[in-house]
Design brief:
alpha+beta, Immunoglobulin-like, 5-stranded mixed β-sheet, 1 helix, globular, binds copper (II) ion
Length: 153
């Protein structure tokens, strides 16, 4: 009788051990399967974000006024305009005093020339990195200080 109990106990232990090992292997497999797709998705998302930045970029708008002889934006004289490569840039320009425009040669961007109180705009894609000079092309305004830096990072 004692032999049967001992053999029975060994069998039960063996079964429990087998189940634990089986579960252990099973859960290990599940873990690997779960982590692989997650890792893959993470990588895919990163690639998608990178493509978005380089291919389409963001839409950036600057609201700038012109007077004799400087540009103004949010109280800053001849402000640095900083964008990322690939951004679509919109310049909304208004003359608050005098006859002016906003020109950026490197991107073939130029607004109309406008008089006091008139508004105009121009849109272009900043597809090249560097620091470029924007300016007013009216008369000698550029030489008199009506210019600033357009920076593409
Ligand atoms: Cu001007």
């Amino acid at each position: 009788m004692i032999k049967f109990i001992i053999i029975g106990s060994i069998l039960i232990l063996a079964i429990i051990g087998g189940v634990v090992v089986f579960w252990g292997e099973d859960s290990t497999d599940v873990g690997l399967e779960a982590s692989r797709p997650n890792g893959g998705v993470g990588v895919n998302i990163n690639i998608a974000e990178d493509n978005e930045e380089t291919e389409s970029g963001n839409a950036v708008t600057f609201i700038i006024t012109g007077e004799s002889f400087k540009f103004m934006m949010n109280g800053v004289e001849n402000p640095d305009l900083v964008v990322k490569k690939g951004d679509t840039v919109r310049i909304e320009f208004e003359s608050t005093s005098g006859f002016h425009d906003w020109v950026l040669d490197e991107f073939n961007a130029a607004t109309q020339k406008v008089n006091s109180g008139d508004k105009t705009s121009v849109e272009f894609v900043a597809d090249e990195t560097g620091t470029f000079e924007y300016y007013c092309s009216v008369g000698s305004h550029r030489q008199q200080g009506m210019s600033g830096n357009f920076i593409v990072e």
